[in-house]
Amino acid sequence: MALRLPAAAAGSSESEESVDDKKMRRRMSNRESARRLRMKKQKHLQDLIVEMGKLEREKKEMLSACRDKERGHLILQGENGALLAEKAALSGYLRRMKALMNGKPGLKAPAFKSHGKSPARPCT
């Protein structure tokens, strides 16, 4: 058997309404918070997509620049190899010429093969 208080009975319907109002306001507040959070997440995702596109373009440009540098490096390596070979040939030629000028018997004038380049090039 439940005890009911007459004064409490009249006030309980008002308090129930205020509790229901509070619950409804709380629900609306939660929905609005959830909506703002979804919008914030969506904007963050869009920002990340934009940043990813920018980074992909930068990566592509850097890879292209790297390939260009590698090609230039290979060209310079080839030129350096050719210059080293020419240096060795010129050093040998110079050694033989010095020996010839010092009067070493039995030496004949050396033939110089320059591979199409002049033995004396101006330095620039």
TrEMBL record:
GO molecular function, one term: transcription cis-regulatory region binding
Keyword check for Transcription regulation: yes
Domain of life of the organism encoding this protein: Eukaryota
GO cellular component, one term: nucleus
Primary site of residence: nucleus
Compartments, as annotated in UniProt: Nucleus
Region (Disordered): 1-42
Any one Gene Ontology BP term: positive regulation of DNA-templated transcription
BZIP domain segment(s): 20-62
Keywords: DNA-binding, Nucleus, Transcription, Transcription regulation
This protein's record includes keyword Coiled coil: no
Protein name: BZIP domain-containing protein
